[in-house]
Specification:
The complex is a heterodimer of chains A (301) and B (169).
Chain A: H1 2-15, E1 41-52, E2 62-75, E3 80-97, E4 100-109, E5 112-118, E6 121-125, E7 128-140, E8 148-149, E9 152-153, E10 166-177, E11 180-189, E12 197-198, E13 202-213, E14 225-237, E15 241-242, E16 245-246, E17 252-264, E18 268-282, E19 291-300
Antiparallel strand pairs in A: 1-2, 1-19, 2-3, 3-4, 3-5, 5-7, 6-7, 7-10, 8-9, 10-11, 11-13, 12-15, 13-14, 14-17, 15-16, 17-18, 18-19
Chain B: H1 2-18, E1 25-33, H2 38-49, E2 54-60, E3 65-70, H3 81-87, E4 91-106, E5 109-114, E6 120-123, H4 131-140, E7 144-151, E8 159-167
Parallel strand pairs in B: 6-8
Antiparallel strand pairs in B: 1-3, 1-4, 2-3, 4-5, 4-7, 5-6, 7-8
Classes of the chains: A mainly beta (301), B alpha+beta (169).
């Protein structure tokens, strides 16, 4: 039993930074400042897979996260949009231990995020727009945060929910014309303490450039658009704290690029991207991200 | 027999009043500033479909406009169009209409009445080549068809700047 406890403790330390900062990055889908029609909505479903299997240590850690985030946006007024999103998660970490290779993880609903975005600046012109929209949100502790297995409670990064109420704020800028679109977003997530554990705060700089391809002339009506997309995500995360002390193997900075494609129709958007790390400067023995794949569909209703 | 004939005449008179040819705002084209992707165009189309009297909407992405056609026998409520665009999150631009109705003098003003009597617009900015046609239409009180641009001011009535005008058959 004491060996199992030691193993659980090892897991906790290793997983303190197990999910690299890029895990929450959603290129191609981080918010734009484009309007949501008053009284109408947009439904978005994503399929996201994260792989972190390049562990040079003898532990040979292999982290995989499958996520199906479901998000709904509603136009409360022409300038105020309300968002709610919740992911369906499947997390698993496998590693070598003195007892052989072990895997721990959990599946289920994660934390619900509520967000309000207000258009503060809007300049429209024929065939183009420029908008700046600050947003405020809250990650609510709806996901399970006390899951356990035969080794004891799962370490916080493997839990589906954080157990804490975490405010977030930011601003997004969108410049869109018929031929291309540019989005930029700055955001900050202030993680708070729960269950004697506090994940580090997270700051992000997201950029997205979309260029319309395939058809030069638009013709009449509303044709389908195909965009080639390149996104950049710079993520900084502060060190976690457990029982009042800093977790050494946590926090750091990571920069990702994500090439992708977007197919846009009036009623729906289908998009996909692969997010690959350009640079990862993580503290301690944090596990780096290999890649993140994202498929996404949005539907107007 | 005489009663049947009377009813038939009344029905014909009502039908004439309500028919598309009788007079109404039959078409409208509005510029939608800020619209630059198909996904956003959907909201514009949905909002414009809720404007009273609108039967068909076709968004022209490259032109940045939405073309509206009235329902059978209906008249597009032009006053609701700018608000519909704003509720979709965009900025309404030039609004051009095709309409039929009459020109009536109200004091010093000339006012366009659609045939179903629901919409009135103040005739403004009459170009020189149309001045004589406008005068004749006002004096005769006969039915006309016109195209023009609608302007919304803080005044009582929206303005209508005619661009073409002809007698309705």
């Amino acid at each position: 039993m004491s060996r199992l406890r030691r193993l659980a403790a090892t897991f906790a330390v290793l997983l303190a930074s197990g999910t690299a900062p890029g895990a929450r990055a959603t290129p191609i889908t981080f918010d734009t400042a484009l309007p949501v029609t008053q009284g109408h909505g947009v439904l978005r479903l994503q399929a996201l897979t994260l792989e972190s299997a390049s562990d040079p240590t003898p532990l040979d850690r292999d982290l995989s996260v499958e996520a199906l985030p479901l998000a709904v946006a509603y136009g409360a007024t022409p300038r105020l949009a309300l968002f709610a999103s919740v992911p369906l998660l499947d997390k698993e970490l496998a590693l070598e231990t003195p007892l052989g290779r072990r895997a721990r993880g959990d599946s289920g609903l994660g934390d619900l995020t509520l967000l309000a975005r207000a258009t503060a600046y809007q300049r429209d012109e024929p065939g183009g727009t420029l908008r700046i929209a600050p947003f405020l949100g809250l990650e609510t502790p709806t996901g399970e945060d006390d899951a356990a297995d035969e080794l004891g409670p799962l370490p916080p990064p493997l839990q589906l929910g954080s157990g804490s109420w975490d405010p977030l704020a930011g601003v997004v800028l969108t410049r869109q014309v018929l031929r291309w679109q540019l989005d930029g977003s700055l955001s900050y997530l202030a993680n708070t303490e729960a269950n004697d554990y506090e994940a580090g705060d997270e700051a992000r700089v997201d950029l997205s450039c979309q260029h319309r391809v395939r058809r030069r002339e638009l013709g009449t009506g509303v044709p389908a658009f195909v965009y080639a997309v390149l996104e950049s995500n710079l993520v900084w995360r502060d060190r976690d704290e457990a029982s009042g002390g800093v977790v050494a193997d946590s926090g750091g900075t990571a920069w990702f690029l994500a090439p992708g494609l977007q197919y846009v129709r009036p009623r729906f958007v289908v998009e996909g991207a692969v997010q690959v790390p350009v640079a990862q400067d993580l503290d301690g023995a944090a596990l780096e991200t290999d890649w993140i794949g994202i498929l996404s569909a949005r539907v107007n209703f | 027999m005489r009663k049947i004939a009377s009813v038939a005449v009344s029905a014909l008179a009502l039908a004439a009043l309500a028919s598309p040819a009788a007079a109404q705002v039959s078409r409208a084209t509005v510029a939608v500033e800020g619209m630059a992707c198909p996904f956003c165009a959907f909201g514009v189309e949905k909002r414009l479909r809720q404007v009273r009297g609108v039967g068909e909407v076709e968004v022209q992405m490259e032109a940045g406009t939405a073309e509206l056609a009235a329902t059978e026998g209906g008249s597009i409520d032009v006053g609701q169009i700018p608000e519909a665009i704003r509720k979709a999150g965009f900025t309404p631009g030039r609004l051009a209409i095709e309409a039929a109705g009459t020109l009536l003098a109200e004091g010093e003003r000339i006012v366009f009445h659609d045939a179903v009597g629901e919409q009135r617009m103040l005739v403004i900015d009459v170009p020189g080549e149309l001045e004589e046609d406008v005068r004749r239409a006002r004096e005769s009180g006969g039915r006309i068809r016109l195209t023009g641009t609608v302007h919304f001011h803080a005044q009582e009535l929206p303005g209508l700047a005619p661009e073409s005008l002809e007698e309705a058959r």
